[in-house]
Design brief:
2 domains; alpha+beta; Alpha-Beta Plaits; 6-stranded antiparallel sheet; 209 residues; 5 helices; 30% helix; 4-stranded antiparallel sheet
Length: 209
């Protein structure tokens, strides 16, 4: 799909890439726009205001996943959904102005991916919620670098956390989640998602132009 605007997914260390993808607004190819030591992952779209549909949000995440693991893999600093630019010039201005922050984030997140863990109490089940939280936190802290606590938006939601995990420790993290799932299988449902780009562990505020 061609378009007159640039949609940006995230930033990597300088690398020339062109990858076939199923992107935002039905984009079919992602490619890099470079400024010095940084490259933005972009695709062409036909609107400055892509609609935040489930399909578009999912495509945004999946493009980042593809880039993270494509041809050997690389570290990605994600941008929030909806970062659209009129052309390469304002995007390069963002890379220029944010170069220090992006570079620092790439160094901090080197080799890291994010996983999400939710634990939901089954209906009509009584458990010691605090004990489950403490046990889960202890086990997953041992195989992750950082955690971020997310809102408990449901009465049945006991744990809702994001974890920053070294790629080399993924099997250990998977195994820890499996053990938690097995132990509480008669009373909770464990929802395990990822790997994602490290959204919850990067804090860079930028605006599109």
């Amino acid at each position: 799909m061609s378009g007159e605007y640039l949609y940006a997914y995230g930033v990597i260390e300088n690398e020339e890439l062109t990858v076939d993808i199923d992107g935002v607004e039905q984009a079919t190819q992602a490619y890099t726009v470079d400024h010095r030591t940084l490259s933005a992952i972009t695709s062409d779209i036909s609107t400055m205001e892509p609609e935040e549909t489930d399909e578009n949000v999912r495509s945004h995440d999946e493009v980042l996943q593809t880039i993270m693991f494509w041809n050997g893999g690389r570290t990605v600093v994600p941008m929030q959904f909806g970062m659209t630019f009129k052309n390469e010039r304002p995007l390069k201005n963002v890379l220029r102005g944010g170069r220090r922050a992006f570079t620092h984030a790439l160094q901090e997140m080197d080799g890291m991916v994010e996983f999400g863990v939710k634990i939901v109490v089954d209906e009509d089940t009584t458990i010691d919620r605090e004990a489950v939280r403490e046990s889960t936190a202890e086990r997953l802290a041992a195989v992750s670098e950082q955690e971020a606590r997310n809102d408990l938006f449901s009465d049945r939601l006991v744990v809702n956390r994001s974890y920053l995990v070294d790629r080399n420790e993924r099997e250990s993290f998977d195994s820890a989640v499996d053990r938690i799932t097995d132990e509480y299988s008669d009373s909770v449902t464990v929802q395990y998602t990822g790997p994602w780009a490290p959204y919850n562990f990067v804090d860079i505020e930028i605006s599109s132009q």
